[in-house]
Amino acid sequence: MTQRRDLDRHRHVLDETRNIMNSMKTLAYMETRKLARFLNAQSSVVAHIETMAGDFLGFYPETLPQSDKSIQVYLLLGSERGFCGEFNETLLTQAESHIHNNSMNTPQLIVAGRKLCDRLERDQRVIAFIDGANVVEEVERTLIKIIDHLLGLRTQDGTMALIVFYHEPDREEIAMTQILPPFEQSRKTVPLFTDPPLLNLQPELFLAELIDHYLFAALHQILYVSLVAENQHRVQHLEGAIRHMEEKSAVLLHRCDVLRQEEIIEEIEVILLSESSQNQPIQKNKLKADQ
Fold it and tell me: pLDDT tens per residue, the chain (291 residues)?
């Protein structure tokens, strides 16, 4: 009986844990649905800025900064919380491979996401550890911290090469996007219009402000994308864990039923033995009386 009670308590704990994980899975799924609305709007903003940059650079390509001295900065967007499977490990593997093959000098890393920060806390290349976002409302807080660190690096000589590694939804491969220097694909753009755009600022100043807007908008979009992917990984990982717990709970339930049946059989045997032992003196007394 003691063994059955232990198994039953274990099964009860598994069921409670499974219910908690089901709630976590539901919240992660709801977050992906909410993020989809924000992501669509932000993607439109980035596309609009890129179109505007193409129109501008078609007439002023010389305003794009050019420098042989470039600070290499890698932004790694990991997970803020757990239950994401190999989310951070996959990201690190591909990022390290790219850095090893393409970086002439020691790069500087900005790491976002507490779980990923924990893995790289002793890495001397990391210049900033930033808490990631748990929900869409926290994305802007993370974004501002990233921008602050990037602005601090701008005081050094040379241009900045900013490359972002992150997960995309519904894809196994890690995405890699170079945000700075921006608009490289527009450097040789053929103007769509015959007249240059009418500007209220000097072209260099206009481009500098446009780059700031683009940096903010593009990082905003990527943070949304990464958070959607993180929640998708969490849903998939939790589904697997929940199925495993359900299977284990079913096994424990079957084992409990078997033990209970054994206990009932033992109880019946005890009753039968007890009745048998009580009937034996009666039969002996009856034999004596008959004699």
Answer: 677 787 788 888 888 888 888 899 999 999 999 998 899 999 999 999 998 898 898 888 888 877 666 788 999 999 998 888 899 999 999 999 998 888 667 789 999 999 999 999 999 999 999 999 999 999 999 999 999 999 888 655 557 889 999 999 988 889 999 998 888 777 666 667 777 888 888 999 999 999 999 999 999 999 999 999 999 999 998 988 888 888 888 888 888 888 778 777 777 877 777 776 666 655 555 545 555
- Spell out the long-range contacts of 250-258 with Cβ–Cβ below 8 A and sequence spacing 24 or more: 252/7, 252/8, 252/10, 252/11, 252/14, 253/11, 255/7, 256/4, 256/7, 256/8, 256/11
User: pTM of the predicted model, to two decimals?
Assistant: 0.82
